[in-house]
Amino acid sequence: xxxxxxxxxxxxxxxxxxxxxxxxxxxxxxxxxxxxxxxxxxxxxxxxxxxxxxxxxxxxxxxxxxxxxxxxxxxxxxxxxxxxxxxxxxxxxxxxxxxxxxxxxxxxxxxxxxxxxxxxxxxxxxxxxxxxxxxxxxxxxxxxxxxxxxxxxxxxxxxxxxxxxxxxxxxxxxxxxxxxxxxxxxxxxxxxxxxxxxxxxxxxxxxxxxxxxxxxxxxxxxxxxxxxxxxxxxxxxxxxxxxxxxxxxxxxxxxxxxxxxxxxxxx
Length: 267
Ligand code: DGL
What we know:
The chain is an alpha/beta fold.
C-alpha cells in the first residue's frame, strides 16, 4: 500500500522532497488540488469538504497512510476527519497532519514566546495556539496571518526587494514581541527560510517544518509496525494534480525536480 501526501496545491512537494530524502523506499502518491488552490482564505466548511474529497480519493488509490501537508487543511479539517469521518469510512487507515509534530518540536526548543505565521485560515483557526497550549500552557504565542507570501513564492519572487519589504512588515510585530521561536505554518514558507531567519536574527530560531515532519513520520513508522508492514517498498512516486498548466509544471520542477510528471485527475 501507498503513503498519500495531500496539499491544496504544489507547496506540499517541498515537504515530500524532504520526506523522500530520508525515506526513499516507500510508494508515495502526491495529490495537489491546484485547480482549487489557495485554500487559505476559504471558509472552514469548504476546506473540510475539499479535504474529505481528497483524502477519500487517496484511500481509493490504496493509501494506508495519508499526510495532510497543507497547514490550512490540517488546521480546519484534520480533527473532524480523524475523529468522525475516518472511523466510519476507513477505520484501519490513518491520516496525520503537520501541526502536531511542529508544535512538539516548538514546545521542546521554545523558551518563552513562540511566533506563528500562516494563511488567514490557519491563523484564524488557532490550531497552533490550541496545540501549543495543550503541551505547555506557559508559552506565550504571537500569531500573524501573512497571506501575501504564498503568491510571492509562487511568482518566484523570494529574493526580490518587494518580498523582503513585505516580510519585514509582517515580521515586525513578532520581532518587537521578542519571540524566541518561529513556526512557519504554511507549505510555501520554507522557500523563504533564509530570508525569514535573516530578518528575525539570531534571537529567534526558525523551525524547519519539512525536516520536523520527516522525523516525526520516521518515528511514527517505527512505533506502528502494523502500519509500516503494509507499505510497499518499491521507491515509486506518483504526482496527481487537479489542474495542469505551464505555471504548475514550472513550480513542480523548481520545488521537486525537473523530472516530475503530473497526471491530471478530478476530485
Ligand atoms: N498549502 C497551504 C498551507 O499550507 C497554502 C496555500 C493555500 O492557501 O492553499 O496553508
